[in-house]
Every structure is written in structure tokens, then in C-alpha cells.
Amino acid sequence: MTDKFWKKSERRLARMFGTSRTPLSGFGSRHTRGDILSDTLYVEHKVRKKMFFKKLLEDTERKAKSEGKIPIIVVRERGSPRWMAFLNLADIPNVAEEMKSL
């Protein structure tokens, strides 16, 4: 029996964080409802056939590349204090370093 794509993707994501996929991730787990095991992070992983922001992401990546910069998309709902960012996980260390100097 072949493994489902989303399970393989969760395993790969977990390896990026130096951990493993939560057994029976979600409601059935006795560890956490997050998709990867972590004492400090709660990571929810989703795989979609189409992402609503794909064109925006590709456009932002193209523009950032032409300027030699790291692409980040920040979204905020009007009236909400929460700011959310979309970026490549591999860019997180570089972004964190840049934010230290702000």
C-alpha cells in the first residue's frame, strides 16, 4: 500500500524541524493535535491542489529575485492586530537575522 502524499509531505516538513510526524496526527493523537512533534511549536500542515495566493506568491518571488531580496508576503485583516507572513521555510533564518537589526 502506498503512503498518501500528505503523509509523506508531513514527514518531510517534520524533518525540516528536526522532529517527526505526530502519530495519528490530529484528533486521534495523544501527543498533540499539531501535525509534527514539538515541545514549543504547533504546526498545522495542509496540502492543496490549488493555493488561492499562488499567483501573488509567484509574482512576489519574481520581483524579489530581480532585486536580490528575500520574498515575504504579509497579510493583515482590517481591524485585526494579527500580522501573518508567507515565506519559504528555508528563508526563516535569514529573515530572523534581518529582523534583529530592525
Protein model, in words:
The protein is mainly α and 102 residues long. The protein folds into 2 domains: 1-47, no CATH class; 49-102, no CATH class. It has 3 helices and 2 strands. The protein has a two-stranded antiparallel sheet. A hairpin with an 8-residue loop joins β1 and β2. The longest helix has 13 residues, at 54-66. It is globular and about 45 Å long. The mean pLDDT is 87.
Task: Give the structure's gist in a few sentences.
With 102 residues, the protein is mainly alpha-helical. The chain is 33% helix and 6% strand.
Write the layout of secondary structure elements.
Elements (H helix, E strand, L loop, with lengths): L4 H12 L37 H13 L6 E3 L8 E3 L5 H9 L2
Antiparallel strand pairs: 1-2
Keywords:
single chain, 102 residues, mainly alpha, 2 domains, 3 helices
Measure the end-to-end span. 51 Å
Total strand count, please?
Answer: 2
**3D shape:** globular
Radius of gyration (Å): 16 Å
Note the quaternary state here.
Answer: single chain
Q: List the strand order in the largest sheet.
A: 1-2
Specify the number of helices.
Answer: 3
Which range best describes the helical content: under 10%, 10-25%, 25-40%, 40-55%, 55-70% or over 70%?
A: 25-40%
Number of domains in the coordinates?
Answer: 2
Average pLDDT taken over every residue: 87
The helix-and-strand class reads: mainly alpha
Could you list the spans in which at least 5 consecutive residues all have pLDDT below 50? none
Amount of beta strand: 5-15%
H/E element sequence? HHEEH
The description of the largest β-sheet is:
2 strands, antiparallel
